[in-house]
Structure formats: structure tokens, C-alpha cells
Write a structure and sequence with these properties.
The protein is an alpha+beta fold and 208 residues long. Strands 3, 4, 5, 6, 9, 10, 11, 12 and 13 form a nine-stranded mixed beta sheet that branches. Strands 1-2 form a two-stranded antiparallel ribbon. A hairpin with a 2-residue loop joins strand 11 and strand 12.
């Protein structure tokens, strides 16, 4: 069968040839990495800084799914699966992302409720969030909490706290969808096992 229509879709088991040469389809893979601070969440950096791709020794062409700020750390998903990427980053899926957050101040319960209900940042109002206050240090004047958001605007969490007069001193992502960072050391990575990928896709499709 000769195809001359732009955007023609083929089935998964189709054999594609160009000038009688078979085009091999790259295996779809998913990795996770514990991104250290001061590493760029992209394939290349115009300033020549190290990127998460520089840290991963893989034969596959990987791309970060979403991003983590330069000065943030934690879980980042890497894959060559465009469909999976879209499901994770598209706003309509409202994928939960869980962070450990430390700020330089003693936050109040009323302020936590304000953040959870949504707060104006730049030209938008954030969606509802979930915050659990883990500890407060009266001597150091710091607060530590876990925070779950369901969107991913640029530097969103930092800006949310800045709106209330606080500065985030540590921001570390520990979970996205149903994938957890576990005991990965900073800079360490691993390929998800097939059953983990199946579980992730099931979660994305069904929310469980």
C-alpha cells in the first residue's frame, strides 16, 4: 500500500518502508531521575549548562516531561513516548504533583487555607491545592510542609508563597501521578519496569 496523504495513521503492527527500506520504530521507554539543584530540565541549554539528559546514559532519545526549576530538585520523568508526555502535561488531566516545601517563616493555618483555595499569581488564579504542615521551627523561623498541586505554571509554588511574603528555600518533588521518587539519590535515575509503565498509563486514563 502506497501512502501519499499527510497525517495518515498506521496501526501498531504495520511495517513502514521508504524506498523499500524498513523504518524501525524506537521502543517506547520511561525513566525517572532525581534531578539535583542547578541542573536544567531540558535536552539542551543555550548557555551550555548541564541538563538532565547529560546525566542519563541511555541509547534512547529521551525528553523531560514538563520541568523542574533550575533551583528545585526531585522527581522528573523522561521518555520518548509523545502520547504519554501529553497525558501527563496537558492541563485537562489534572495530574497531581507532590512536593516537599520549606519556607523562611512561620506560616499560619489561615494562610495555608488561602493557598489551598487558590490565590492570584501574575495573571491567573491557582487551582485548589492540598497542603500538610509537617513542622515549624520557632528558633529558625522556618516551616516545612508537603504540597500537592494539579497544574504546573512556571515557578508556581514559589510565586504562591511570595504572594504571602514568604520565600521558598527548598522545593523538592517526590511524586507525580502514581510514580514516587523512592530512594533515588540526587542525580540517580532508573528505567521504569513494564508493570510500572502499565500502572502509570492506567492511572492517567482512569485516575487510579
Amino acid at each position: 500500500m502506497v501512502v501519499d496523504t499527510l497525517g495518515f495513521k498506521v496501526s501498531c503492527d504495520s511495517v513502514i518502508k521508504v524506498d523499500d527500506n524498513v523504518i524501525n520504530k524506537e521502543e517506547k521507554v520511561v525513566y525517572i531521575i532525581n534531578k539535583p539543584k542547578n541542573i536544567i530540565s531540558s535536552v539542551k541549554d543555550e548557555k551550555g549548562r548541564d541538563t538532565v539528559i547529560d546525566l542519563v546514559d541511555s541509547p534512547y532519545r529521551l525528553f523531560p516531561v514538563g520541568r523542574l526549576d533550575f533551583d528545585s530538585s526531585g522527581l522528573l520523568i523522561l521518555t520518548n513516548d509523545g502520547e504519554l508526555t501529553n497525558m501527563i502535561i496537558h492541563p485537562r488531566y489534572k495530574i497531581p504533583k507532590v512536593y516537599e516545601v520549606t519556607i523562611n517563616g512561620l506560616i499560619t493555618l489561615d494562610e495555608i487555607k488561602t493557598l489551598e483555595n487558590g490565590i492570584r499569581v501574575d495573571d491567573y488564579v491557582t487551582s485548589k491545592a492540598r497542603i500538610v504542615l509537617v513542622s515549624s521551627n520557632n528558633n529558625k523561623k522556618t516551616s516545612h510542609m508537603t504540597m500537592t498541586i494539579f497544574e504546573g505554571h512556571n515557578r508556581q509554588i514559589r510565586k504562591m508563597f511570595e504572594t504571602l511574603g514568604y520565600t521558598v528555600t527548598r522545593l523538592h518533588r517526590i511524586k507525580e501521578a502514581n510514580i514516587e521518587i523512592g530512594n533515588l539519590k540526587p542525580g540517580a535515575y532508573r528505567r521504569l519496569k513494564p508493570f510500572e509503565v502499565v500502572s502509570l498509563k492506567r492511572y492517567l486514563n482512569n485516575g487510579e
